[in-house]
Amino acid sequence: MRFRGQGAEEQCNGGVRAVSDRTSEIRARGPGAISFGRRGLRNALATIALSGLVAACGAAPALTVFTLSAPEERIEAARNLPGLLLIAEPSAIQILDSERIVVRDTGGSLSYLPGTQWADQLPALVQSRMVATFENTSRIGAVSRPGDRVSPDFQINTEIRRFEIDTARGEAVVELSLRATRESDGRIARARIFRTSAPVRAVTGPDAVRALDEALSQALIEIVGWAGS
Questions:
Q1: Which uninterrupted H or E stretch holds 182?
Q2: How much is the pTM?
Q3: What is the mean pLDDT of residues 14-19?
Q4: Using CA atoms, how far apart are residues 68 and 179, in angstroms rounded to an integer?
């Protein structure tokens, strides 16, 4: 699913207003308003810089916004973590802790896919889809998130290690490290690293999101089976 972004347009409108205000101020002062002193030079340079911002904004394309889905299939598995599970928001390194889609090139460097973004910060999006997957797979009464005012039996802590398009391999890669901590004594009851992948046809917004969505769905199904349904 995708939407059209508005952030760039709002910044540009702000720049237009700033230039308009500066121009009106100069006109009100009359022809002698721009002097060759330091203050006049600063004002002139500021006006030129803002004019350049407006020109650049006029050419900037709007970002296409994508979201992720949650699997709906039922999973039958032993309850390895009986009771109520609290799904905490995942942690991630800075480049992943954002709204942008990450691409790893053949040399191993990371960058963002141009013209695209997620509908939310990636950790919040993954948390939401993880909760929805537990609910969709018959554990709707056994999961919660921080702020629900409940007393959980276990807390699921997740680290997003990889969530990217690997151009060298031609695939989307998702790697999540999970720990289930017992609330009664703070001990780790279970821990596992989940790594899944899916082929990507082209490094474009729709194809990249389709592959990442498939890889995440595989990981979420494995996570529910690991925790027990």
A1: strand 171-182
A2: 0.74
A3: 45
A4: 23
Q: Where is pLDDT greater, at 103 or 142?
A: 103
Residues with Cβ within 8 Å of 100's Cβ and at least 6 positions away in sequence, in order, are 112, 113, 116, 117, 118
Is residue 121 within 8 Å of 97, Cβ to Cβ?
A: yes
Q: Show the domain range for 132.
A: 65-227
Domain boundary among 46, 62, 78: 62
Same domain for 92 and 55, yes or no, is no
Higher pLDDT: 9 or 107? It is 107
Q: Do 127 and 201 belong together in one domain?
A: yes
How much is the pLDDT for 19? 42
HSE-up of residue 144 (Cα within 13 Å, Cβ side): 16
What's the total number of domains in the chain? 2
CA nearest to 165, candidates 120, 227, 210:
210
User: Which residues are bridge partners to 66 per DSSP?
Assistant: 2, 118
What are residue 157's DSSP bridge partners? 179
